[in-house]
Design a protein that fits this description.
Three copies of one chain form a homotrimer. The first copy, chain A, has 190 residues and is an alpha/beta fold. Chain A has a single domain, classed as DsrEFH-like (Hypothetical Protein Ychn, Chain: A). In chain A, helix 6 links the parallel strand 3 and strand 4. The longest helix of chain A is centred in the N-terminal third of the chain and has 21 residues. Chain A starts with 12 loop residues before the first helix and ends with a strand. Chains in contact: A-B, A-C, B-C. The interface between A and B is large, with 48 and 45 residues.
Chain lengths: 190, 190, 190
């Protein structure tokens, strides 16, 4: 592409100036394509252990100065629930609501669930070891400015009313997620 | 590394030209190391909800102009099945085939499966809300030029004949996946 | 930002030299923000099929010249066990220990587990097809210099003593993981 120095004819000062300006422009273009100091995650799972892992990574990254976005979709929306409502839903959505945990305190474990005993045991061990609870980590994430987006499409399909979710969320779709993911240093699907 | 302007001796025009050319070469090298406009995913799971999430992200990214690659491995291969064949397989692979879903329409849900009722309910809700079905999303992904690679090693181990999978797939291994992942803006393991 | 060549006044050789030096510095700064030849993963799952996938990707990437880091957390720690110890643990941690697999040879499958028959079948098929076993892949990963870090916090919460894990591990937290992830070409959560 570039001719080697030995074969190039001697340029004038004005020609060289022009090349330097082209380089400057190329460099600025390149800069725009670099990943930002940013971490993005999809929280697809609604299990206590996985949501905990997501929040520990999110708050850790935010504390290290990264911009962090969490996109809650499918079962992950259960981690954002504050109540259950049945009124006005078709029976399929009523059934899904009834079978879903009523909020972050009721999320199951992905292993050793034992009808809730596993999750209770994990929470008790976390308390003994002074590890922050899910609720505390959620609050910390919000305090650190973690962007929390609830997937509009899965909210609609699963029949979760906006009032069933905690306040202060954004609603968005796959384009919202991709907009952040494609300029991130790391993207996780949890 | 660089000497500061104040201490550098005045260069000749030829010397300066040489430095500009070196810069140009460094910049071109740097450009090659930048992530491309590309998204890569491993589809390890063979569950309806997870394969749906993968396809929604894949088609969304392709529609936004990204090159997208999906590597189907382990249970993810079940999403690519078009038929089951037993002939000529050892009994272990026959058993695995019998226990596998016969294609994308039979994929289970990762939660609330209830012997297929959960998946049927989700599909019915998606239809009501005008969300594309798995089959439509697969077709859309192909129309948008999403690269679909089936993992050769897990196909071989699980005893899935090439004829059992839909046509138009590539076959590859971990090097194929990494070749795309390492130059991507984001890589997901689903 | 940059003035176009046509309107810029003719610079002196010294002025042009200064601009070239600024460009050089900008380029060096940019270089530091590029992702390294590096792949990082969280191994959260303790299932044979998922740990296998993680190790196949890790050894493949290391063989291709990438620096690779694996962070084992939650159930993933079970893949690093070499023994079980109960002495001195509270009953909750004793119970967790009893219910955990005793090491990589006892990891369950995520699907078709059937009380261990599924995992045995997969291992037998892998052997027939000359695919390396989990133990061989672990050894290969170590030989290739893959960095293996056990999550200190989940080790503490789940009550796994350091002696219960294989030797030669590092212990670290979310900051250790993020330190590697944020400079990687790809990061996976498995």
């Amino acid at each position: 592409m570039t001719t080697s120095a030995s074969t190039s004819p001697q340029p004038t000062l004005a020609e060289l100036q022009q090349r330097v300006e082209q380089l400057q422009q190329q460099l600025e273009q390149l800069q725009k394509k670099l990943p930002e100091d940013r971490l993005t995650m999809v929280v697809f799972s609604g299990e206590l252990d996985r949501v905990l892992a997501a929040l520990i990574i999110a708050t850790g990254a935010a504390a290290m100065g990264q911009k962090v976005s969490m996109f809650f979709t499918f079962w992950g929306l259960n981690a954002l629930r504050q109540q259950k409502r049945l009124r006005g839903k078709p029976w399929t959505q009523k059934l899904m609501t009834l079978l879903s945990p009523a909020g972050p305190t009721q999320l199951p474990l992905s292993k050793m669930h034992f009808f809730g005993a596993g999750a209770a045991m994990l929470k008790s061990l976390m308390k003994q070891k002074n590890v922050s609870s899910l609720e505390e980590l959620f609050q910390l994430a919000r305090d650190l400015g973690v962007r929390m987006v609830a997937c509009e499409m899965s909210r609609d399909v699963m029949g979760i009313d906006e009032q069933e979710l905690v306040s202060g969320l954004e609603f968005g779709g796959v384009a919202t997620f991709l907009g952040d993911a494609l300029r991130s240093r790391a993207t996780l699907f949890i």
